[in-house]
Structures are given as C-alpha cells and as structure tokens.
Amino acid sequence: LNKIDELQEVLIAGSFERPTSTDCMDIVSPVDGKLIGTIPICASATVEHAAESAQEAQEEWRLTHYTERYELLQKAADLIEANKETFAKELTWEQGKPLGDSLIELEGCIGYFRGAAEDIKRLETGFLPIFDPKKRVITVRDPIGVIGVITPWNFPWDIPCFNIASILASGNSVILKPAEQTPLSGLRLIQCLQKAGFPKGTVSLVQGVGEVTGEAISSSNLIDGISFTGSTETGRAIARAGSSNLKRLCLELGGNGPMIILDDADLDIAVADVALSCFWNSGQVCNAGERILVQEKIHKEFLEKVLLEAKNHKLGNPFDEGVTMGPMNNEEVALKTDRHIENAKEKGAKILLGGKRASGFPTNLYFPPTVIDGVTTEMLLNKEETFGPVCPTITFEDMDDALRITESSKYGLQASVYTRSIKKAFYMAERIRTGTITVNEANNFWEGRLPWGGVRASGMGRVGGRYALEQYTEIKTIIFDLSKS
Ligand code: NAD
Predict the structure, then answer these.
(1) Dihedrals φ, ψ of 321, to 5°?
(2) Taking CA 178 as the corner, what is the angle to CA 153 and CA 278, rounded to the nearest 5 degrees?
(3) Residues labelled as active-site residues
(4) How far is 149 from 152, CA to CA, in rounded Å?
(5) Beta strand pairing status for 414-418 and 258-261?
(6) CB neighbours of 96 closer than 8 A, spacing ≥ 6?
C-alpha cells in the first residue's frame, strides 16, 4: 500500500477541498510503521463552514420523501460492497486488525445502510387519544438537524456507518470527524456517500485531532446534536461543550465488561468465549471481556483451560493468514495496557502468560495474549477500562460477591453470565446495571439491530436498527381541530 495523497481532503458544501492555513498531522501505520498520509487539523472556521452548508441542506433534506433517501442509502451500500476488498486492506493498514476481521467489518457496514433504508420505510408513528372529541392528534418524527459524528479508531468503518446510516435515513445532515489515528476509513466512507449522490451539504467530512476539530464540533452553535463514540473522559468534555446550545447527545462510551462464570457453567463454552472477548481486536473493543470473575470452586480448572485456549490466538502481521491478533493501534493504548499490568504486578497479581510487548516486529505495538491471576478490586485492571489483550482473573465466593465486584467499577456497558441455571441467570441479569447482558454468550457479542448503549460512565442514548431512528429524531405532536375549518 502506498501513501494516500487524498487524506489531505475534506468534504464541505458538496466538494472535496484541501483546507489551507491549517496545521497538519502525519498518520503512520501500526502494522509496518510506514507513512499512510497527512491530514489537515481542521479548526473552527472549517467546521463552521461545514456546519453552515449542513444547515442550508436541512431545509430540503429533512422534507425529502423517504423513498428518495431509501435509494441513496442503497446506492451507498452498493458502492461499499463494490470496493470492500480495497477498503478492508486499507482498514487493516491503518488500524492493525487482521484482514479477515476487516472484511467482516465492511460486510456489517453494507448491512447498516441497507437496514436503515428498510427501517425508514417501516417507521410507525402514533395516532393518540385526546379528551376533546372534536380534536385529533398524530405524532410524527422530525430529524434533529445537523449532527456531528465523532468516532474512535477501534472500528473505523463500523462505528461511523452504524450511526450515519440511521442519521441520514431519518433526514439529518451529518458532519463526520473520524479518529485522527484512522482517518482513511472515514474518507473512503464519505467518498462513497458523495458518489451515491446525497445532496450538497447533507454529508461533510472534517479531519483533525479531538482537542481542536472535535472541540469545534461540540461547541458549534450551528450543530444540533452529537453522536459520539469514544472514551468516557471525552464524552464528559463533549457534554460540557455541547451544553452551549443544548445539543441532543448520544454518548457511547467506555466499558469494563465483567464475565461472570458460576461454578455450574459449561466451562469449555465459557473459556472459549473468554478468550475471544479478551483477545479479539487485541482487546480494543468497548464490550470486550475486561474482568473475568470466576467462582472459587472452578478457579484452578478455569486457569488451566484458559491458558490452553489463549495459545490458539496468534499474534502477527494482520495481513497474514492464520493471524488472529495484529498490533495494537497506537502507543497511548499500549502504554495504558503496560501501566495496568504493572499496577497489578505491584499489588500482587501473577502474570501467567504474556504481560509485555512482543519483540521482533516492525513496530513496538504488538502485544501478545496475556493472562493474569489474582486480580483484586483495587487494581486498575478491575476499576478502569484497559483496552488491551488481557484476561484478568478475579475469584468470587457467591453470586452476591460477584455482584459486589461488578459494581466496584463505574462502567455499565455489557456483562455476561455463565450458568446452567435459568434462575441464577435471571438473578444476575436483573441486578447487574449495564445496557446489555449476555447469558452463556461472549461479552463482545454484537448485533447491530439490537438496542445498543450504556448506563452510568458508559454513556447515554440507544442506537441500533429502529432504536437509532428514535435516537436521531424527535417526536412532533400535530393537533387538528375538526370543529373549525
Ligand atoms: P477518544 O475519546 O480518545 O477519541 C474518540 C474521538 O473523540 C476521536 O475522534 C477524538 O479525536 C475525539 N476527541 C478527543 N478529544 C475530544 C474533545 N475534547 N472534544 C471532542 N472530540 C474529542 O477515544 P478512543 O481512544 O479513540 O477510543 C477508545 C474508547 O472508545 C474506549 O473507551 C472505548 O470503550 C470507546 N468505545 C465505545 C464504544 C461504544 O459503543 N460504547 C464503541 C467503541 C469504542
């Protein structure tokens, strides 16, 4: 793959351009350390220009018949489909995940556009009872307006598409700012949307770092809503900046998923799911298995089995067949993983596998599967989101003890419980405070049409299929008085 010159371009008011007089940033591949390209760091003036054109576009776009939007969304899906192999290679190059996983990610994106196109055709609204017999009431769903979409680097195709398909389907205009570590996927997506024929101004792309470009989006008074996926800390900053004009917020934030394995569980199923949830995408997944809670009685057997299973996860060049884990995406996330492991060691935990970066690769970002035993609630591995390929094991006595450990972290995205007892599964599922709970299924189980989102430090709002159409619209009530003509 060669350096991509187009990375310098942004899409504003319907045309791709190279912003002048902005700072720039080099983007380097985590796979081989080579330069992918240079992005502009768009400042407030560029963002405001995009927002003005997005607002202008709203006048017509919000009233566009859904059949027209349906056609455009399907065309976007066709274009992604036609280019998915190339896009997958570029995704692996800039993100680091295995090529097969990149292709699966692209397949999912095609589905989001086709799904949103279908959902908008079937969106039902209400006909409500009203006291006055001479009146009738209907409700319709209005788009929010201009929505800024700010996304992370762990799923650089999936997350923008997952949100943008529904945002456009429901008649909003969109301004995308992809993560600065993975700007190429965002560029390719927006190129597809432009080619599909979305009207001028309905789709814009800006590039840059969070503190400049992201901040300009969240504080712009021309932008009506934010769809943010990223860390809890950034979510808080966006909520503060977005309060200037009371933006509608959808905040999909960090997680610290507990996988709770009760002593009556099918251990083979649990162990395979644990390894998948901890090591897939090198653990850089919001609903990864971040804390593995194992009941005392099965602790020893669990460790034996998980160590064997971990060895099936192969670290290497993500373009090579058979490799299941590529490099981590960036130094910052790798450093956090180092720090959490160091903290656990200092406090008495035992590294059973991995534990430090692998040598002999073109970059210093290759991190092997790591299994740690003896983790306790005061360690960073338990309290914070690690976001690395780590399986930290914590033992518990009974279900209430497992609930206490679960609650010792502020996050509430996804959890999983392994048991053969429906009664125990419900006991846990009804008490754990997360947006999603899986029973006898991997913590990182994901199906894009189900309601998705967190509670507490994991955010607010629900997206996924028709739930995203609700998230990105507002109910408008229309009252008819039949007695007056
Ligand atoms: P991040 O918060 O550092 O960055 C995410 C995006 O926000 C980037 O585009 C960044 O440029 C931008 N940003 C940073 N500072 C900003 C600011 N002050 N104002 C506006 N924008 C700003 O997160 P990350 O490291 O890219 O991603 C990892 C995090 O994302 C993890 O915590 C992970 O759990 C979370 N995540 C959550 C979900 C979910 O659905 N809940 C999905 C994927 C990732």
Answers:
(1) -65, 145
(2) 15
(3) 252, 286
(4) 10
(5) parallel
(6) 29, 30, 31, 282, 318, 326, 327, 328, 329, 365
pLDDT single digits (tens) 190-246 = 999 999 999 999 999 999 999 999 999 999 999 999 999 999 999 999 999 999 999
Q: Which two tokens stand for residue 169?
A: 């389907």
Angle, helices 267-279 vs 299-310, to 10°: value is: 50
Integer Cα distance of 174 and 50 in angstroms: 9
Helical (H) or strand (E) element with 270: helix 267-279
* Position 239, amino acid: A
Atom of ligand 1 nearest to the CA of 237: 18
Condensed to tens digits (0 to 9), the pLDDT of residues 356-415 reads: 999 999 999 999 999 999 999 999 999 999 999 999 999 999 999 999 999 999 999 999
pLDDT of residue 43 exceeding 90:
yes
- Does the C-beta of 162 come closer than 6 Å to ligand 1? no
Cβ atoms of 116 and 171 within 8 Å: the answer is no
Only one residue has tokens 């405001």, namely 48
Q: What percent of the chain has pLDDT over 70?
A: 100
Choosing from 212, 234, 290 the residue with most ligand 1 atoms within 8 A of its CB, the one to mutate for a pocket test is 234
Whether 473 contacts 143, CB under 8 Å: yes
* Cβ 50 under 6 angstroms from ligand 1: no
Encoded amino acid at 15, one letter: S
Residue 233: C-alpha distances to residues 45, 70, 214 (Å): 25, 36, 13
Burial label, 89 (beta-carbon count in 10 A; 0-12, 13-18, 19+): middle
State the Rg of the chain over Cα: 23
Q: Which of 227, 231, 238, 249 to mutate to test the pocket of ligand 1 (most atoms within 8 A of CB)?
A: 231
Nearest CA to ligand 1 atom 9: 179
The Å distance, Cα 232 to ligand 1 centre, comes to: 8
Q: What integer pLDDT is reported at residue 405 of this predicted model? A: 98
